[in-house]
Amino acid sequence: MNYLMYMKKLLNDLENMDHVYSKDIPNISLYMDQVTTFMDENLGSLKRRDDDKILTKTMINNYSKNHILPPPIKKKYSRDHMIMLIFIYYSKHVLSITDIQKLLSPIKDMLENNPDFSIEEFYDKLLNVQKDEFKLFKQHIEKTIEVAANTFKDSDEENKDILELFNIIYLLTLQATAQKHLTQKLIDRYFKQNTDPKDTKPKK
To answer: InterPro entries given for it (predicted)?
Structure first.
């Protein structure tokens, strides 16, 4: 079971994945089909299966209905919409629709009501941090693999690989659970449901 080489490939893919900067997003408004095509072509690195869809028409319509995404203008989506959809895509794997709505409410509010706010600049700054985080993440996972291997280094050779691999997956699951817990607690503490468009600021 050569899982170490496979994990190394996965980590390298993550570290070197292409990032979609604001300049890479079309500067013209797009119809729904164009939006879903762009997302499939540019955000496919984290898909589990090749035939998985990044975002569907139904998903996007639901985000608008739930006031997570500003409504399209004459059935077209701007670059600002696209950036919001990218935020939603990465969040939806961890957070509920309600939590995503809470988290993005201040951004949506600034986008709609603050002419000085540039979501493009905000997004690109986050993306630069994201690239560095993937490098740190790779180093952290490599350490997790080392710990898992050392835990069962004296085990019977026949079962050693599967025990190590189980331990790695279990440790990754614990880490993901802890991160999700922290995320939920921060949202519960500092963000709230957007019931009033004027009441979207995080709690202090």
So the answer is: DUF1836 (IPR014975)
